[in-house]
Amino acid sequence: MGVCWIIIMHTTLCFIVSSYHISNGSPFPVLCCTLVSVLSQVYPITAIFLFVVTSYASSNAYQTILWDLNVLKNQPMDKEHYDRLISLKKHHVLVCETIDHINNCFGWILGISLLFHFVSIITASFYLFGNERGRETLLEHMELSFFISQILHILLICFPPDLIQEKADAVLKELIQMQIEMREPHKSLTNAFALQADHFFPEVTAVYFYPISGKIIPKIMGTTLTYFIILYQFHSSEKQ
Predict the structure, then answer these.
(1) Contact, 171 vs 131, CB < 8 A?
(2) What is the CA radius of gyration of the chain?
(3) pTM here?
(4) Are 160 and 51 in contact (CB under 8 A)?
(5) Residue 103: which of 201, 216, 205, 199 has the closest Cα?
(6) What is the pLDDT of residue 38?
(7) N or C: which end of the chain has fewer CB within 10 A?
(8) Are residues 206 and 111 in contact, defined by beta-carbon separation less than 8 angstroms?
């Protein structure tokens, strides 16, 4: 679905851009540069799509651990129970390593993409709501589509890390609850598992500069509104 969305979106955008420039008699170099600028977004958008897929896979891995822990709660505390806890503890280490690999693989592209989408939202909002009306309908639709796409991309980047942390927090709470009800040696193993889950609590970052989560969306909205007001005031003073 994600690949189909990328193909359809860029094909439609290339068609709209080509139609606009051809109908306005734009020079061929301008048309080529515009198409190249559209197609150059394929790489970062594909990277974001892969980031979303791996993030959801990691959250499902935490969910699987949580389900197995719930099953173990209702089983007798024998050797099989103890071995299953060890297996889940090792599985949790692999999931934590996956989060580290996500940060290493996608950290740079996430940081650059967030910066790009943030600036794009500021400029697109100004062109949509800060300029005078009366422009061509096709151009307005292109600007609106671009504005909406930037918002969707930011949501795609920010919400998967929240899902990972939600599942990881549920696993940690379940382990804390389990160790209260257990006896030795299962209690010590569950306690070590809980300490591991707390110490290696997952966090997706932009190359470790800042954490990526839904909490930055209100900050982006507030900063966008601030820059929109500044640009609007500057534009109004230029007209006067």
Answers:
(1) no
(2) 24
(3) 0.76
(4) yes
(5) 205
(6) 61
(7) C
(8) yes
